[in-house]
Amino acid sequence: MKANYLLPLALSLFGCSANSKPESLISDYVKAHATDASSYAPVSFSQPTRFHNRDIEPSLLDTTTTGTRYSHTYKIKNGSGAIVEKTHDFVIITHSQHVMQLPDSTNDIE
Q: Superkingdom of this entry's organism (predicted)?
């Protein structure tokens, strides 16, 4: 009988958290580059996909997987103080766990 209520407790204490390490790294990156980091509210993260150097520069012949790509949607205050929803693509570089925002000239972090 005791084991019946201990299992859910153990799962809640040691189970997967809502914020995985990649999500935390990306969230930290966004907040570090935001005008008002306190207004940051994550909405969603895509499933991870492999990232290759040639994904940025198609002329490269290098097919080595260099990281993991995520699309992240979040809400944040813009420079005018209005809450806006943004979506950016990020790569977490495999060997260094460094976060890189993929170029998108029309959609900067606020």
A: Bacteria
